[in-house]
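From the methods appendix. Each design record in this collection lists the tokenized structure first, followed by the designed amino acid sequence. Records were kept in a plain field format so they could be parsed without special tools. The example shown here is representative of the layout used throughout.

RECORD:
FOLD TOKENS (252 positions):
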């Protein structure tokens, strides 16, 4: 009988799922009313918060092995700095006057692990909140737990016109990290590349049961509205960011 080899754990931490409603839309009812969908990764033992944008405004469907593009929007060394970027704001336009951008809402929180198996990184998570996923989580394809193959795009690789970030927004990796691409389009083994704003990545739906499929432990804990880490760790107060999507899975 052969023993399954345990994957190498590159990183563990807390994961948060967020969304920002469309401009002027204070009562979203579905993805059509959503401007952007985010993941926040807070690595264990570090004061670092990565804000990742998922291009299709939801997670890839694991059953269909969908392949979605995304990018690292910002990396902050404090929760306060990140939270300020997630608040409501007003801005002026030449044609429509003052416009209102609603505050980001919480759609879920849990724990994650980034593992390396056979030369490929996988991002796996287990949800802690909401206790009973509902409409919001179904819309964003946030399953109770799931795993995605994670690959970082070479910023020097060519892309079709109109695809991906413009040149002036792409990540500027140091030479030691650029060397890891070895002229390939993707790098699949170094999680440090997520520490650079503008890093583009591909997520591919892989498994709904990462613990049994890959042997990776995801020690999710029971949370409630008093102990929610998304409020404590991300400083996302109830007064600034509506809580119904997080605790009840209902749109707000």
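DESIGN:
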């Amino acid at each position: 009988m052969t023993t399954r080899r345990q994957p190498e754990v590159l990183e563990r931490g807390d994961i948060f799922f967020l969304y920002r409603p469309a401009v002027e839309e204070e009562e979203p009812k579905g993805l059509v009313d959503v401007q952007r969908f985010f993941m926040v990764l807070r690595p264990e033992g570090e004061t670092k918060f990565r804000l990742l944008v998922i291009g299709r405004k939801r997670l890839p469907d694991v059953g269909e092995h969908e392949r979605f593009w995304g990018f690292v929007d910002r990396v902050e060394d404090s929760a306060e700095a990140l939270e300020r970027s997630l608040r409501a704001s007003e801005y002026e336009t030449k044609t429509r006057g003052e416009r209102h951008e609603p505050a980001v809402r919480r759609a879920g929180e849990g724990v994650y692990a980034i593992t390396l198996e056979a030369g490929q990184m996988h991002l796996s998570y287990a949800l802690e909140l909401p206790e009973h996923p509902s409409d919001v989580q179904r819309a964003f394809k946030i399953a109770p737990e799931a795993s995605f193959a994670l690959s970082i795009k070479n910023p020097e690789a060519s892309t079709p016109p109109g695809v991906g970030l413009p040149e002036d927004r792409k990540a500027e990796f140091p030479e030691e990290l650029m060397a890891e691409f070895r002229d390939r389009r993707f790098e699949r083994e170094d999680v440090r590349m997520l520490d650079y704003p503008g890093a583009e990545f591909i997520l591919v739906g892989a498994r709904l049961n990462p613990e049994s499929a890959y042997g990776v432990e995801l020690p999710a804990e029971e949370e409630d509205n008093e102990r929610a880490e998304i409020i404590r760790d991300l400083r996302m107060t109830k007064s600034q960011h509506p809580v119904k999507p997080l605790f009840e899975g209902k749109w707000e």
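APPENDIX NOTE: The first strand starts at residue 8 and ends at 21.
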